[in-house]
Amino acid sequence: MASPFLGRFFVFSIIFFLQSQGEEEESPITRFQQYLGFKTAHPNPNYTAPISFLVDQAQSIGLTTRTMEYVSGKPVLLVTWLGSDPKLPSILLNSHLDSVPAEADKWIHPPFSAHRTVDGLIYARGAQDDKCIGVQYLESIRNLKSRRGFSPLRTVHISYVPDEEIGGFDGMAKFAASSDFAELNVGFAMDEGQASPGDEFRVFFADRTPWELVIRAEGIPGHGAKLYDNGAMENLMKSVELISMFRETQFDFVKAGKAANSQVISVNPVYLKAGTPSNTGFVMNMQPSEAEAGYDLRLPPMADPDVIKTRISQEWAPSIRNMTYTIKEKGKLRDHLGRPIMTATNDSNPWWSVFKQAVEATGGKLAKPEILASTTDARYIRTLGIPLVGFSPMINTPILLHDHNEFLKDTVFLKGIEVYESVISALSSFEGVSDQAI
Ligand SMILES: *[C@@H]1O[C@H](CO)[C@@H](O)[C@H](O)[C@H]1NC(C)=O
Ligand SMILES: *[C@@H]1O[C@H](CO)[C@@H](O)[C@H](O)[C@H]1NC(C)=O
Ligand SMILES: *[C@@H]1O[C@H](CO)[C@@H](O)[C@H](O)[C@H]1NC(C)=O
Ligand SMILES: [Zn+2]
């Protein structure tokens, strides 16, 4: 049996060791931890402190900074590394400042403590989504400048935007629509991706576009005992069946392994509203004159919005069945030239080849490019016709965005810096394209 004295000494040494680690000089890991410590979770993200931290970091590396405020209290930070030929289209690296909330009592370490375990796991809200890339961009440039004496041909911009997690309307949407953005003359952009549980980096070339669909039926009210045609409920239920059938055909492609979830049109019922209220619930012997259903639709970029609209107006909510509908489009499916909003991931896009080779040069492998099932700020940039890939270099990492106990392993974080060194140096040295017609 070990003597209690030795046991205690051992524990004391570990604590001492950890404390001395904690007080060690600044490193990419400690700077990541500092950035993770800022409370930028909704509903009350404070953007002041992280922005002043990032400005300090950028200035310490010798980069210039600019803060824009399109909506009061919602700053956009732009960090710039000037290229030797600033007339060439630039490279833009984006990330968002905010994060979703965290239920602290469900976490094993406080979500804003950025606690690093002895195994190197750094626990924090935002560790994966997406404060990792925000720091990695800067750290890789720090290394490119100081260790390799590298200077870019093209200008490299890094943007930090607010409010992505609540739709980006006051953040990237405003920034992308501004003349400030147009003046950056962006040729190629990168934004967040997602962790990969396997050993291939995931990469995203499009987002799906959400639509909110509400269908309504009107009909003659009637006694609950009466069989008659064209009641509101009956008309609505016909549509519900048709929509369910369409949903099945889409889902069958996924179940048969012919398509990923994000490649099909998803349509999911989110509410049903009908009935005549009574004191105890609903009047049971009466068929109501109005009925309504709400659906969440997600459309991949290849989907033809006009075809879907025709289907909705002729099958799902036809006026001949006394139905009406509203569609709230939460984004566009076509860019200003009418092209699907997606980035080519083949030889037709020279930026893609440069990016892919740069990742491979670090010994990494890219998985088959994917469509993101949800949406990010990337859509605002792709809509402008600018090619953009979503990429967060995290392999062998469980997907924990928006989950309890979000973490990133220190070695994965550090490897990501190396990957960006390769990617940023390659993209910013790329002489090839000078126009954006890709
Ligand atoms: C945000 O944080 C800064 C620095 O920590 C603090 O001075 C400021 O009062 C905070 N702002 C709000 C609105 O909470
Ligand atoms: C539509 O409404 C009109 C007027 O209430 C009614 O006469 C007709 O039967 C309804 N048609 C259908 C298909 O519900
Ligand atoms: C490259 O991909 C785009 C978009 O996915 C496609 O339209 C085009 O035909 C492809 N080009 C080549 C050369 O494979
Ligand atoms: Zn994110």
TrEMBL record:
What does the UniProt cofactor note say?
A: Binds 2 Zn(2+) ions per subunit.
This protein's GO CC annotations = cytoplasm
Query: What is a single molecular function from GO for this protein?
Result: aminoacylase activity
Identify the keywords attached in UniProt to this record, alphabetized: Metal-binding, Signal, Zinc
InterPro entries given for it? Aminoacylase-1_M20A, N-acyl_aa_amidohydrolase, Peptidase_M20, Peptidase_M20_dimer
Q: Which residues bind Zn(2+) 2?
A: 129, 165, 402
Q: Where is the Peptidase M20 dimerisation domain positioned along the sequence?
A: 213-314
* Enzyme active site: 98, 164
GO biological process assignments = amino acid metabolic process
CDD domains the UniProt entry points to: M20_AcylaseI_like
Q: Please list the cofactors this protein needs.
A: Zn(2+)
**Entry keyword Zinc:** yes
**Residues binding Zn(2+) 1, per UniProt:** 96, 129, 192
Q: Which residues form the signal peptide?
A: 1-22
Protein name per UniProt = Peptidase M20 dimerisation domain-containing protein
